[in-house]
Design a protein that fits this description.
This protein is mainly α. Helices cover 39% and strands 0% of the residues. The protein has one domain. The radius of gyration is 16 Å and the shape is globular. The N terminus is likely disordered.
Length: 137
């Protein structure tokens, strides 16, 4: 097997786990999905979908970087790179948060929806981000 195929197979196998293991790892509650905590948003949404060397890997590519050590404060109340008049994360205001606008492909964003191509993030993970932002004060 070629190394690329081996890596792909390992990634697919890693994504397939039993519900008990997934629940313990992500903080799920009764099968409803991950709790809307920063750690779950970072680790289940941002790092696997955005933290690549060509996108938002550290240090700060494409406006901000994200990895397993990124703190919520690095996004909360910080100006969006593409539109500094809008915060990346506006506590309690998901619709006013540029991060969510990019994930949902909202009208008025600069550039394309994220992640490429054309957004494409599943609704449950977008909802996790929305719920996390809504719960911030």
């Amino acid at each position: 097997m070629r190394p690329v195929h081996t890596a792909s197979m390992l990634m697919l196998l890693a994504a397939c786990g039993d519900k008990a293991a997934d629940s313990a790892d992500t903080g799920t509650t009764g099968g409803d999905g991950p709790e809307p905590t920063w750690e779950n948003v970072r680790d289940t949404v941002l790092v696997p979908s955005c933290g690549f060397s060509t996108c938002h890997a550290l240090p700060g590519a494409a406006g901000f970087g994200v990895d397993g050590e990124t703190l919520a404060e690095e996004l909360i109340d910080q100006p969006a790179f593409q539109d500094p008049t809008v915060p990346l994360v506006d506590p309690g205001n998901p619709d006013g948060s540029y991060l969510l606008m990019k994930l949902e492909g909202a009208a008025g964003i600069d550039g394309d929806p994220m992640p490429p191509p054309d957004g494409g993030m599943d609704a449950a993970r977008v909802q996790l981000v929305r719920d996390w932002i809504a719960g911030l004060e």
